[in-house]
Amino acid sequence: xxxxxxxxxxxxxxxxxxxxxxxxxxxxxxxxxxxxxxxxxxxxxxxxxxxxxxxxxxxxxxxxxxxxxxxxxxxxxxxxxxxxxxxxxxxxxxxxxxxxxxxxxxxxxxxxxxxxxxxxxxxxxxxxxxxxxxxxxxxxxxxxxxxxxxxxxxxxxxxxxxxxxxxxxxxxxxxxxxxxxxxxxxxxxxxxxxxxxxxxxxxxxxxxxxxxxxxxxxxxxxxxxxx
Length: 227
Ligand code: IYR
Prior knowledge:
Blueprint: H1 19-34, E1 42-43, H2 49-59, E2 71-76, H3 79-100, H4 103-108, H5 120-123, E3 126-133, E4 135-137, E5 145-147, H6 151-168, E6 172-173, H7 183-187, E7 194-205, H8 219-222
Antiparallel strand pairs: 1-7, 2-3, 3-7, 4-5, 6-7
The site of 3-iodo-tyrosine has 9 residues, from α3.
């Protein structure tokens, strides 16, 4: 018996699949996900904005603490804004690569051929800048702030769903974390309850796109079963 609840409840629409069908779908989901790669070399060709809007809508279906949906997705295609973001990101990354990152960290990044230069921030036709909302402005609350819950987890899940939706839609992306990234709040005029979380360039790969030769951990290495 479900306990009485104060919220209004509606029926869940759910179709139970046969186990064969489930395995087939799980296999094809895995196969699709295995072809996703982060890309650093973008073709400047524009992408359909409506596709990006739908992918952001898909991200917005993510579960979140107390259903606060504590995220804002800024969709940037304006070349001047992209340039500002690139210039500010490269300034921070220069400091990172020339002193702020440890030798070990730089060593770990060698396979990815990264440095402080971020041409993809201008080459990619769209930048999606994800902000997390630490709190929600509220006139009725003390300090005018209403708390959000599990914000990092919620926004992380939404970003994962966004990246999957992009991949399903035939686009490539990069999860980029310039650090620190407060400059994004300034450039995009975000309110004080928002903090930049992730910067995701999106587009098509260049035709001769290369990617790091890396392997994913096998299932046995990432899973422990308890039955
Ligand atoms: N934020 C830097 C450095 C960097 C860090 C990690 I961890 C990466 O996986 C990749 C890069 C940059 O964007 O270059």
